[in-house]
Structures are given as C-alpha cells and as structure tokens.
Specification:
The protein is built from seven helices and six strands, in the order ααββαβαβαβαβα. It is an alpha/beta fold. It is globular. About 35% of the residues are buried.
C-alpha cells in the first residue's frame, strides 16, 4: 500500500535522512495495525516536524547568524554513522561537532564513536557528559581522543568540560555557513544552551 512519498514527509528532510525513513516506516506500520486509516496516517506524516517542540533532540535545526546548529541524540557509533550519512548530503564545507562519551560503553565503542566523529568533522569539541556511569571525565576524554587519532582525517580537537561553555564556544567560533552539531547528552539542557546563545546573539544585533 502506498501511503506517501518519503520526500513529502518532513521528518525525512526530503528523503535524505535514511534513519528517519526507517522510523517513519515503523511508526506507519504501528499506526496501521492499530486501525488508523491510511488518510489519517498520511496527514500525520506530512504535518509532523522535527523541531524542539515535537521531537526534542532528533534532528533539531536552529539558525544563529551565519551558523546552523543541529542538535541530535546520536550517542553511539551506529547512530553517529547514520547522522553523518545525512550530514554529508547537506554539502556544508565547515563542520564542528560537540560530543562526549557515555560511561557504560565498552572502551572500543567509545573510541569508535570518536573515530566516526573525526571521519566526518573538521573540528571537535569534547565535553564532559552527565552520564559518567562509573568512569572519570579524564578517562572518557582520553578514549575519545584515542578514537579521533585513529581516523585518517585530522580535525582540530579542544576539550571544554562544561557543556554550556563547549556549545557556546563551538557556535561563537563557527565560520560562515558552518554546521555545528551538538550530540545531546541531556537534551533539554542542550536545547536551552543553544537557545540562550541565539537570544544573546539576537540581543547583540
């Protein structure tokens, strides 16, 4: 059964976000087996947007001056690879990533997370996340840096432990047309820090 073209579903960003197409397919099937009509499913799919109000932490874009901020909750290598596949279709020359490690991952998973980030960004800001889960901040920073070093790409790396400071630094130093990606740790906090910077920038104009 044809429901709607993927390019017409806002969550997929014109069909470029393949992982969102997968989510849409699962959601569509769940709605259908619960008796929702095809027309109601179509209306839902075509009117649901990936904004901070409806999908906080999932492909949330915010424009701040010459910089575009993208907030997403990709917090493991597979999630970051899916996000990177989408980002690579946006054609941005400059890309910065704000990330942190999660304590209850294997060492190799944390390293791989860093390596995937290094493969796809030219600047990386490492912060201390809230989910240390038995590890020290220094340990997580070290594992991420080891992973970054494994990449053939050599991004510039800076460690700024406080999340607010890390996000504000990344945006402040963004180049014209740059995409700044924050891999949300605590989603509401990241959204608040980005919106705070946007409001400060708007007040300075």
């Amino acid at each position: 059964m044809r429901i709607e073209r993927a390019v017409n579903v806002p969550l997929t960003y014109g069909g470029r976000a393949e992982f969102m197409i997968q989510n849409v397919l699962a959601g569509t099937l769940a709605a259908f087996v619960h008796g929702i009509s095809i027309e109601d499913i179509r209306v839902g799919l075509t009117t649901f947007n990936a904004g901070t109000a409806q999908t906080p932490g999932r492909l949330n874009f915010v424009e701040i001056g010459d910089v575009t901020v993208l907030m997403d909750y990709a917090h493991n290598p597979a999630g970051l690879r899916g996000l990177a596949s989408f980002i690579n279709k946006l054609g941005r020359k400059y890309r910065t990533c704000v990330l942190n490690g999660t304590g209850d991952r294997r060492d190799d998973d944390i390293r791989e997370f860093g390596r995937v980030a290094a493969d796809n960004f030219d600047r990386i800001v490492i912060r201390t996340g809230d989910y240390l889960r038995g590890r020290t901040p220094d340990e997580l920073h070290k594992l991420l840096q080891e992973g970054i070093a494994q990449s053939d790409n050599k991004p510039t790396v800076r460690v700024i432990p406080e999340s607010r400071d890390a996000i504000h630094h990344a945006i402040k130093h963004g180049r014209k047309g740059e995409l700044v990606v924050t891999l949300a740790d605590r989603v509401p906090n990241d959204i608040a820090y980005v919106q705070e910077y946007r409001d400060m920038a708007a007040g300075a104009d």
